[in-house]
Amino acid sequence: MRFVVALATLATIIVIGCNTTDPTPTTVPTPTTPPVQPTRQGSVTNDGIGQFTRFTNAAKTFSISYPDDWELLLSQMEAMDESLRELMEDSPATARILFFAAELEDGIIQHSARVTLDALQRELTVDQYAEGVLRLFKDQFPEVSTVSRSIVPIGNHSGHLVEMEGDLASFGGEGRFRNLILMTTSPGLAAGWNVTCSMLLPVEDSIASACERIVGEFVLLP
Predict the structure, then answer these.
(1) CATH number, residue 91
(2) Computed from CA positions of residues 23, 56, 33, 188, in that sequence, does the dihedral angle turn out positive or negative?
(3) Distance CA 216, CA 222 (A)
(4) Structural domain tally of the chain?
């Protein structure tokens, strides 16, 4: 469970701490695809391409794909370790993890993907938000290195895509990790989004490609 908790801790850290109490976007568009399997947090459909499943959250604010053989763990929170539940549901109040899926081996998370929504004190540009997140992260964990950084399109919007590597000992775990982190904001709203795919190193090419697809197919719904 130490690696699980380390990933959850990492997820809660790569956000900007703010005082806004309700980060949930208010726009609720009509879903374009009927749900096949309802869950507590949203709906799941199979896209039939490359054995990936599409998740849309209940508020219809975002959509993301993940591999069919990964488990959607957010819907199983009640059965998971209490310390992990506290990390993911109760801290910090301004950051909400809305999606969490993972590849498990003997019940232990090997690789995972998550979507975190962060309430901001004011509306920020994508550049301002990304700079703030990375500055806070590097201040707290200077030993984690940035491998690459680029600006990528997200529909009609844009985001900052950052690849990082580091030692899980910084988060109470063992081994090394690689993260793909997509950071963006909701236009017209004081809300920031972190889409993170975490890989336990060494990683197979198939997992690295899956993470690229997970992050690359994240969509903010209109």
Answers:
(1) 3.40.1000.10
(2) positive
(3) 17
(4) 1
**Domain limits at 178?**
2-220
Segment 86-140, tens digit of pLDDT: 544 544 447 788 899 999 888 888 899 999 888 888 899 999 999 998 988 888 8
Residue 138 one-letter amino acid: K
What are the residues whose beta carbons fall under 8 Å from the beta carbon of 2, sequence distance 6 or more?
A: 172, 173, 174
- In tens, the pLDDT along 192-219 reads 999 999 999 998 999 999 999 999 999 9
Query: At a CB cut-off of 8 Å and minimum separation 6, what does 36 contact?
Result: 43, 44, 45, 46
114, 31 Cβ separation under 8 angstroms: no
* Secondary element (H or E) of residue 57: strand 52-57
Q: Tell me, what's the pLDDT at 220?
A: 92
| Residue 221 · residue 157 · CB < 8 Å | no
